[in-house]
Amino acid sequence: MYRIFYTNSTVRYYLLGGGISKLGDVLSGMAFLFLAYELTDSKIVTTGMAIAQTVPYLLFGLLGGVVADWVQKKRLLILLDLIRVPLVFSIVIVYYANQLGYVHLLIVSFLIQTIGCFFNPTHRAVLPLITDEENRTVVNSLNDTFQRGVTVVSPLISVWLLTTYGAIHFFTVDALTYMISTLCFLKVDVTDSIYTGKRSIKEAGLSIVSFSRWANQNVTIRNLFLFTFFIVFLNTWVWEVGLLLALSEMTTKSEEMYSLIQGVFGAVVIGTNLVIPLVMKRMSLVIYMIGSFIWGAGVLYYGLWYELEHFFIGAVFIGIGIPIAGLARVYLLQTLVPSDQLGRGFSTNAVLLYLANTLSLALFGFLSSFITIQTLMIVSGISMSTVSAGYLVMTNTNLRRRLTVQFFK
Questions:
Q1: In whole angstroms, what is the distance from residue 109 CA to residue 46 CA?
Q2: Exposure pattern of 217-226 as b/e (b: 16+ CB <10 Å)?
Q3: Between 3.40.50.10490, 3.40.50.980, 1.20.1250.20, 1.10.530.10, what CATH number should domain 214-409 receive?
Q4: Which residues contact 310 (CB under 8 A, 6 or more apart)?
Q5: Alpha-carbon distance 152 to 156, whole Å?
Q6: Which terminal Cβ of the chain has fewer Cβ within 10 Å, N or C?
Q7: pLDDT, tens only, 226-267
Q8: Looking at the whole model, is its pTM more than 0.85?
């Protein structure tokens, strides 16, 4: 099944290009934070750098999808990677000229993330153009495995760079990854339709509105977006922040334990990604909700059994649920969204994810000042599991009928 990676050169170079480019993104993301703190020694200013990496997606995320639908996707991917090379390498040059300042870092970080707003939906939109429906789940699985694998490898590379050459050479490696990614995309053979309509700011706005109307009328896509926002909103704080804070209450080695839990999570995600295509080739909203239910059950589990060893078990459940839901979401977008609107489909999905993350961090962070972390975990887990289970029950006609009969007896 996974022989397609070796037998299909277009798929192989597409996956390698995306994975290597992702590695550059992860390393540069860390490097911006490291150097910001090194230059300013301020947690508040460093937080500003982190915000600069998320704001572009809220500002330009939807526009990125429109552009992805307007232009030839292969050319855009190559162009964007080539633009990133001098941008990130400029930091190395300015650093050795003893002129590097926080403002320069902030501007380059903002520009790099803005490029990502256009690169990411374009890269996702290429996959349906180079695969048939039979192999789409397999290639999606491989793509997600490459993306997850990068997040596992990047800490090892970062430790090596920090102990040998220093944080500044994160950007040297970044520039190299973008160059290699460009070479990979040059070898991708993709037939892309040419957009013949008008291109303007007004047309971009109309295109976004047009897709929003289409998505609202398509019941499956509309529900997918709504459930995605709800599930991610409930998960982000309790998984990314709440878990770390809970560990800090239990052990003096909270950062090490958090890293171990993330490592277990990453390994389970990769394993699940590789298994999914073996048991299913076509996916649906029902499968998405099954993944969300397992995901929510993991959060609920470590919320109820609020102890160190149970956090690891909960991470296993989450590591199974997230890739099931994630691959189902990508498959549905690739299958149901018209090919000339795929960029807008993936950019809308990305904007919803970033918006859900931002609101979750803000609201739950506020609530944590007077509600215990365990309570927030339990409430989130129950909400995620209940909504997912409720949808599964309502879509099961026979079960719904039996419940209706029992209710009216």
A1: 12
A2: eeeebeebbe
A3: 1.20.1250.20
A4: 301, 302
A5: 8
A6: C
A7: 999 999 999 988 887 788 788 888 887 776 787 678 778 888
A8: no
